[in-house]
Amino acid sequence: MKVYMDNNATTMVAPEVVEAMVPFFSEVYGNPNSLHKFGTATRPALSHAIDQVYKAINASDNDDIVFTSCATESNNWVLKSVWVDKILNGDKNHIVTTEVEHPSVLSTCKFLEEQGVKVTYLPVNSEGIVEPHTVKSFITDKTALVSVMWANNETGMIFPIKEIGEICKSKGVLFHTDGVQAVGKIPVDVQDVHVDFMSMSAHKFHGPKGIGALYIKDSQALTPLLTGGEHMGGRRSGTLNVPYIVGMGKAAEMATENIEEKMKAIRAKRDRLEDALLTLSDTFTVGQREHRTPNTILISIRGVEGEGMLWDLNRFGIGASTGSACASEHLEANTVMLAIGADHELAHTGIRISLSRYTTDEEVDYVINHFKEAVARLRAISSSYAKVKPTPGGEAGECHIPEHLT
Amino acid sequence: MKVYMDNNATTMVAPEVVEAMVPFFSEVYGNPNSLHKFGTATRPALSHAIDQVYKAINASDNDDIVFTSCATESNNWVLKSVWVDKILNGDKNHIVTTEVEHPSVLSTCKFLEEQGVKVTYLPVNSEGIVEPHTVKSFITDKTALVSVMWANNETGMIFPIKEIGEICKSKGVLFHTDGVQAVGKIPVDVQDVHVDFMSMSAHKFHGPKGIGALYIKDSQALTPLLTGGEHMGGRRSGTLNVPYIVGMGKAAEMATENIEEKMKAIRAKRDRLEDALLTLSDTFTVGQREHRTPNTILISIRGVEGEGMLWDLNRFGIGASTGSACASEHLEANTVMLAIGADHELAHTGIRISLSRYTTDEEVDYVINHFKEAVARLRAISSSYAKVKPTPGGEAGECHIPEHLT
């Protein structure tokens, strides 16, 4: 049996999405910028896809949604163009972000620091989220941008974006959110929440890899990252990736229609899985589940290295993760657990399990069984676990990181 | 009948390419950076695709080929990162390019000028190419980069890249070439020609839109444009677009294997079409055909506005162009014809016809017939053509722009 439980890394493209895309490879293949029928034939499908993405996040007619090649591009675009517009060619010099952003934000901030930009990396609380008052206390009159993710990729924890947005608005500071782990998983309404820019990625909600978007409130100015032809109103050059735009539209529609029902179904499976895993002694999950995206569990199993666990699960066809796939080539400690305050040994025990709307009850049962067996196998050979006397009755629970474990 | 003659704008994705890509949407859909089987299952196909692209341009093992989302990204990457590396953080301040580059190079140069970079736009000769001695004469000790296209998108004219590469090498200046219109159309051998960086685009050779690459000689340093996770050795972040990388590899292989034979077949059709069109009076094509990519014709028909001609052909199902699709939303004069020295009226008479290996003899015949009829129709209502006494015997020919017409 093969069970995919790594949907925060990427997802299977929905068959309906593939079906929608395929005609645009070899049948309707014109360049949308061309004036002849081969080009214009692509336009109704593009318009429809754009409408689908607008609807998925409740954007208004005044807003822009610009397709990019991925959320990494969207994140780079916002950070680097704010640097050009407000710092190189303005009087600001400061960007505020968090310690637990995706590598595409953190690495870009490191690059900007090398160019002389001052960056504040906000700490998170024991739940792994940044608190609004923390954001407020670090904004200065030199701050050009605040960039805080909507939901965390490793824990699924949902950040208080509405409150942070209000703070940025009242301070007159631009606000960007990496919405990659939120869109398609929880309701996202950009008219209810104040965000100037929001990054999205299709492959996190059963669209293809290699297409993303940037939401731009009120079509406000932002220097393009990719300059060139007048594609997308001159905001992002490069021949339009027609099949993937069509696919992203379809995937966004499928993921967000009746989202409350979908969330309920996924949450039920997630909670059942989580409850079963927490019956194991000396385990805990990071962040209260009501505050997480409904598909995500980050579980720590004392005495079991995440990588060993991952390999054992992999033997049985289960795909899980120790954290961001974008950093997984180096077997590093889970960065969110470190940010919360775990020591390196503990931060190496994190296993992320992320479900999708395609996850079945049978798959959940399979994971529960194999997970328990794997933990038993690995603890039996764990030198670190043997040294620690297991707490009677275990430490299972859903909580912030217990002090005696850090 | 529908006849697509705009293959320099984009191409139909080859059915074999679609077939190669499709399994990577919903079957082998893991993130290549993931450590489990779902992720590692993608890797053999990725390796194979990379090998195919290496082979297509005869890159060596010391080189890097980094996949990007399009050639616009590749071009932006080189220009903007050379700006960061050699100008913002170095002692250079000058970039050399040409007047006839693709908008993704020209617009990026305009952006760099706004940031204080000095840019020289080299003129072209009457054939529409930049001459090596011109490049040489503008390089100074402040020049960070020379960027000259391998083949022009509008005329198909092939530039003396080997000679320009040698000049840059001897001067110690980085050399970038936009190889978009060369790769897959003519032999491209990066071990025979000295180029530090070369941009490529899959959708110009029957691969999908939304994937390109940058060739980097000897894996030399170049600050990433997209910073983030450690994808592609940290050179270009963003989850790998597995289906399109596989598709680009397959398309590159198909386009470049036995390329001499393919060129011969396309050239025969192109030449037959060109000869037939040049029997019309007062027409000429830009650039000697032996020095062009074998699929391209840029023809000027005196007294006939390109846009009118395009619409007339479009009525009969023929897709052609007045120039770069990337600039076609604005009905501008053909920029290459302007650069050669045509006045605006003449530069509005250019029609670009670009064939592919899928073009049939039947399609060529169809275009010849309708083209001639369209010219007759449009000349009959042309006020500008009526004013000019047609030259006896016509001015048909393949030549630089005649002085009396400019």
- In CATH, what is the homologous superfamily of the largest domain in chain A? Type I PLP-dependent aspartate aminotransferase-like (Major domain)
Count structural domains of chain A: 2
**Order of SSEs of chain A, N→C?**
EHHHHEHEHEHEHEEEHHEEHEHHEHHE
- Main sheet overview of chain A: 7 strands, mixed
Specify which chain pair forms the largest interface: A-B, 84 and 85 residues
What's the CATH architecture of the largest domain in chain A?
A: 3-Layer(aba) Sandwich
Q: Structural class of chain A, please?
A: alpha/beta
Strand order of the largest sheet of chain A: 2-8-7-6-5-3-4
List low-pLDDT spans of chain A: 402-406
Q: Quickly count the helices of chain A.
A: 15
Instruction: Let me know the number of strands of chain A.
Output: 13
Helical content class of chain A: 25-40%
Portion in beta strands of chain A = 5-15%
Which CATH class of the largest domain in chain A is shown?
Alpha Beta
The third-level CATH topology of the largest domain in chain A is Aspartate Aminotransferase, domain 2
Residue-averaged pLDDT of chain A, rounded?
93
SSE diagram, text form:
The structure is a homodimer of 406-residue chains.
Chain A: E1 3-4, H1 15-21, H2 23-26, H3 37-40, H4 43-57, E2 64-68, H5 71-88, E3 94-98, H6 103-114, E4 118-122, H7 132-138, E5 143-147, H8 161-171, E6 174-178, E7 197-201, E8 212-216, H9 242-256, H10 259-277, E9 283-286, E10 296-301, H11 306-315, E11 318-319, H12 335-340, H13 344-347, E12 350-354, H14 361-380, H15 383-387, E13 397-399
Parallel strand pairs in A: 1-11, 3-4, 3-5, 5-6, 6-7, 9-13
Antiparallel strand pairs in A: 2-8, 7-8, 9-10, 10-12
